[in-house]
Structures
1.
Amino acid sequence: MMDDQRTSYQLPELPYDFNALEPVISAKIMELHYTKHHKGYVTNLNAALEKYHEAETKNDVASMIALQQAIKFNGGGHINHSIFWSTLAPVSKGGGQPPKGELAKMIERDFGSFDSFKEKFSSISTAIQGSGWGWLGLNKNLKRLEIATCANQDPLSAQNLVPLVGIDVWEHAYYLQYYNVRADYIKAIWQIFNWKAIEERLAKAMI
Ligand code: MN3
């Protein structure tokens, strides 16, 4: 009945070196963000799931409920950062090259133009109160793109949107380099968005 085929979550390999996104994101921020923050979410997610599994084997529903917040926070952190790394690229590897094809068409249709999308996504992400994420997501029912925000590490899937590209606006993502000026970090991050990877995420999500 009870199977122990569960595998623990792993920190995904970073597709570039820590210094590859400079000068937009410093090597020090990348190193800490990946090896401390993201790794912490993975470690804590696995620990919470282990406890959850133990509680489940004891039919201890109260403990299972008590663990849900830790699973949501650390599981969301793992999901969000895995997407984040994969949707950034060094300028030398295509970072900042504008979207093409279906994604470009949908952005124009749903936001008027790439520039107005950029403006709206930036201002909404800059205005998030406290820690969280700004996202471009796909509403699969309406086949439309939507901009949304999430608090803390809440995953965008909780809003019934498929995440395409996110901006981490936690201070750990920018403070060492941009200090309190979140707007400057968000202005700069457009130089390293990997729109080719984001187009691939859209193509998979549209199936
Ligand atoms: Mn982060």
Note: The helical segments are 27-57, 61-66, 68-86, 101-111, 114-126, 175-178, 182-189, 195-206.
2.
Amino acid sequence: MAELKSFEVKAYPEMWKSLGMNVERFEKMRCVLGDVYQKTYLMQDNRPKSMDYFDNLIAEIHGGRISEILEAKKKGSPVVGTFCVFVPEELIVAASGICLGLCGGSPGSIPDAEKTLPRNICPMVKSAYGFKVGNICPYFQSVDFVYGETTCDAKKKTWELLDREVPTYVMEIPQMKRERDRTMWLEEVKDFKKKMEDVTGKPITVEALKKATKVMNAKRKSLQRLTALRSHTPAPISGKDALLIEQIAFYDEPVRFTEKLNALCDELDERVKKGDGVSKPNAPRILVSGTPMALPNWKLHNIIETSGGIVVNEESCIGTRYFKDLMSETDSSMDNMLANLTDRYMKIDCSCFTPNNERIDQVIKEYRDSKAQGVIHYCLQFCHTYNIEAVRIKEACEKNGIPFLAIESDYSAEDVGQIQTRVEAFLEQVRG
Ligand code: BJ8
């Protein structure tokens, strides 16, 4: 095991105060995050050198990146908070804006949310809402507005309450993918473009959207490249590190992120050539499928990898569902670009759709592409659509002779022992 390196998430109390945050509460959360990060990440053996950049982004998560965002805001960049990969990021970038994924992955903010929200709802929704009402997230404090969506019931009803705290607009996402749904979706995309234009007072031009498309495609390609590299045995990077990078993708500056991720991939290319990696040759290779894992939710990956397995793919919105589809770069009319944008986002196979056969096929495809040996379906507690869809994923795995395990969990540490026991037994089964 690697030596324990010293690490701290840096404190910026003056900045937090100026953002109207509860500094005392937040200071405690900062220390907990630093501690957990050190134990979860810095103890890993043989980490790629290029992970330094991503470690630094965590050290600067509550300050360095926030200063950049505030600086851009002063120069007129709108800052938009989102909770779903359905909100077209290209239009935010085309309006010189900053897109911040605000999903919550921490148990620390849940008590704040439970003062208002019912307890029996998704922990991701509670965590995010708690960050805002508790004034304990510098990202939430920096956004000009939030763009929510009508995917699941927990989210769409929470927007009504969130709107009291921060201006919250809602994009209607249909629950089916028929022609009439596409027509309605295109209108929603046009409304979103208009919203961005109203905020900046400038029209989004074809040229700006083309440029933004290139930025987003390049970012998505770098994430695809990372995913492809993980298909090698031994895996050149841990699942935990890959998950961290995917989480950082939702708040880092996209051009710099792409450059740094490509540099990491160059290093991983070298590792693959030399047969160097982070896992033992017989480590069971696991594809994790299901609900997204917002930062700092590293629970399942940590359990799998400290039990001797290696996670080689995330079939979820934190993973491939965010970056598997690119947008055409050849269009030259705004109407065509918006239509293509709609088509690109309609390919997202979230379980809120019915039917959602594409996702079942996608899990099997990614299982094969990543050379996995087992599927663990991860479902956040009270997420009904993913929980029910797991039945069909299980059936498809059984039909294809793929070992399958379903885990339902929240952000607490209470079920860690129980999950660990189930994961260990599953890894034994995969080993045969
Ligand atoms: S496209 S997965 S990011 S909706 S886990 S909050 S669904 S109760 S996150 Fe999602 Fe968009 Fe779909 Fe992806 Fe609700 Fe389920 Fe919680 Fe969820």
Note: The chain has a mean pLDDT of 97.
